[in-house]
Amino acid sequence: MTKLKLICLSVVLPLVAHAQYRSEVWSPDNGDGTYTNPVINADYSDPDVCVGPSGEDYYMTASSFQCIPGLPILHSKDLVNWEIVNYALKVLKPRKEFNKPSHGNGVWAPSIRYHDGEYYIYWGDPDYGVMMVKTRGGDPAGEWEKPVRVIAGKGYIDTTPLWDEDGRCYLVNGWANSRSKFASVLTVRELSADGTRAIGQPVIVFDGNGTENRTCEGPKFYKRDGWYWIMCPAGGVPTGFQLAMRSKSPYGPYEHKIVLAQGKTNINGPHQGGWVHTKYGEDWFLHFQDKEAYGRVVHLNPVDWSTGWPIMGKKGEPVTTYKKPKSSSSIIVNPVESDEFNAPVMGKQWQWHANYDEKFGVPTAFGTFRIYTYKLSEGWKNFWEVPNLLLQKTPADQFTVTTKIRMTSKADGQFGGLIMMGLDYSALVVKRVGQEFQLVQMTCKAADKGNPQTEEVLATLKPTAVDKIDYKPGIHEDIYLRLSVNDSKMNFAWSKDGKKFSPCGIEFQMKEGKWIGAKFGFIAAETDPKCDRGWVDADWIRITK
Predict the structure, then answer these.
(1) Does residue 143 surpass a pLDDT of 70?
(2) Other C-beta atoms lying within 10 Å of the C-beta of residue 468
(3) Burial grade of 198 (CB within 10 A; 0-12, 13-18, 19 or more)
(4) How far is CA 4 from CA 356, 365, 368, 538, in A?
(5) What is the distance between the alpha carbons of residues 235 and 211, in angstroms, rounded to a whole number?
(6) Residues 421, 485: contact at Cβ < 8 Å?
(7) What pLDDT, on a 0 to 100 scale, did the predictor assign at position 231?
(8) Theoretical Cys-Cys bridge with 274: which of 31, 48, 256, 288, CB 3.0 to 4.6 Å?
(9) Distance between CA 483 and CA 151 in Å, rounded?
(10) What is the rounded CA–CA span in Å between residue 404 and residue 417?
(11) How would you classify residue 264: left for phi > 0, otherwise alpha for psi between -120 and 50, otherwise beta?
(12) Nearest by Cα to 51 from 31, 75, 80
């Protein structure tokens, strides 16, 4: 099944870094000087953006929670065409917690800023405090330093720094009710000039309790024309709105105004994001829309300051199609989805479900990516515990995923295949039973509640190949697996030749994960704690209409 390829690192790695990927399923650039929202139709929740010293290099990051690598770094020349260029976070600490899936924990609502020649990202870990990481050498696509805990404690979320003209640094943050048992307030405090520690006490500068501004959170901190500005969402994730508030002091008091709301549009809860002022004198706001199973996708709206307030979209309502921001770039590029697995590094679209361990899986020199079977715990109920799920975000409302894999099994009960993962999940796997394989659909509803999964045998398959040696022989199955998504409903199909696909199994209603959208990719697991691991060799995966 595998294809032998001679890979020259000096040739391949630059191509990995600079190739321009065009999605077949969603591209916001209409090619006529306009764009259509969302500019990223994938789950980059709580996005924030800043502009680099060139004035035309925009960098975005977003919440990554427990997924690793974390803190994705996306780059754009025009705020419409985006590509994934890096991750700022390679490991989550403490390892004891994050070496297994700690669903919904970890990195919450980061902010990205350029200051004094370096890029900084701050985020709140609701269990451990305010965290910060910065570049080493000023290149977001390069190395990032080890994270620093700026403030220790529970409940801190949604943190943004502001370096003032006099060099002083201030931090605004929200609060997680699940940890602090209060919320809907924003606090500001002073940090050291280098942004590494708190030197002042917090001051409540806004209180949304008992008002329409409940659930005020996700604040971003700016200064413009002598005013301190805090922009934040309120009213709840699915149905809320965007606030802007201003004061002559970082500590308030702040007056506030709703500057973006759904209005008569079908774009619900348009809020929580970042404002950017371009070198062409234009102002834009990137924010998310909650699309349930698909996660929180990224929209771009113009900002009008003519009234002295940042009125977003078209008179405060989000736009669907609009003229692109001024830019010297005409490049159309999208975040990578498909993968031929030809490079000696993991593609930037992929994340594991916990801190990476090399026993999860590695690239090969043969044009494949190998995912080893994870040993499920005694008494396991479902895949909620599996850390080596190799997953990526859904890229559109309608799409098809096709992959060619070889399942290699060393022992009975080992299985691997394709999965759509969330609070509910469904997987199409090849499972060894005796000296044969079974094609099985494994489905679970409310996996987070510990519910057991169900299994339906769809076909029995003779092995494609059987090892003839006496020493730990394996049996192998070459197969093509497919999932198709339309209106958050998913269906499976399979093929032995990659040409004729047979629909199989039952239709699955996708469900979001814990604070993240549903994600698709590879599963490989087993129940025998003593046997040698089996593995899935993924030859390629392609995302098409």
Answers:
(1) yes
(2) 6
(3) middle
(4) 27, 8, 9, 14
(5) 9
(6) no
(7) 98
(8) 48
(9) 44
(10) 10
(11) alpha
(12) 75
Summarised one tens digit per residue, pLDDT across range 156-182 is 999 999 999 999 999 999 999 999 999
pLDDT in tens, 314-325: 999 999 999 999
366 token code pair = 């043969």
Cβ atoms of 311 and 261 closer than 8 Å: no
User: Is it the case that residue 16 has pLDDT exceeding 70?
Assistant: no
Residue-wise pLDDT for 376-386, tens only, equals: 999 999 999 99
Residue 17 DSSP SS3: helix
Strand 220-224 to 129-134 pairing: unpaired
Return the closest-CA partner of residue 425 out of 399, 444, 452, 398. Answer: 444
Structure tokens at 260: 């973006």
Number of CB atoms found within 10 A of residue 424's CB: 22
- Degrees to nearest 5, angle at CA 60 with 540 and 130: 110
Distances in Å between the Cα of 508 and the Cα atoms of 42, 103, 425, 456 are 20, 22, 8, 13
Whole-number CA gyration radius for the chain: 24
Q: Which two tokens stand for residue 473?
A: 């022989």
Q: Where do the DSSP E strands lie in 90-212?
A: 108-115, 118-125, 129-134, 148-152, 156-163, 169-175, 185-191, 203-207
Decide: helix, strand or coil at residue 179: helix
Rounded to whole angstroms, the Cα distance separating 163 from 161 reads: 7
With tokens 């306009």, the residue in question is 34
Residue range 37-56: mean pLDDT, rounded: 97
What is the percentage of the chain residues whose pLDDT exceeds 70? 97
Place of tokens 């993968």: 339
Amino acid at 196: T
Strands 311-312 vs 82-89: parallel, antiparallel or unpaired: unpaired
Question: What is the DSSP secondary-structure string of 242-308?
Answer: EEEEEESSTT---EEEEEE--TTSS--S-EEEEEEE-TTS-EEEEEEEE-GGG-EEEEEEEEE-TTS
Tokens of 189: 């405090």
Q: Residue 97 has what DSSP assignment?
A: H
**Residue 26 burial (C-beta neighbours within 10 Å; 0-12, 13-18, 19+):** buried
Gap between the Cα atoms of 232 and 205, Å rounded: 12
Nearest CA-CA partner of 193 in 223, 160, 170: 170
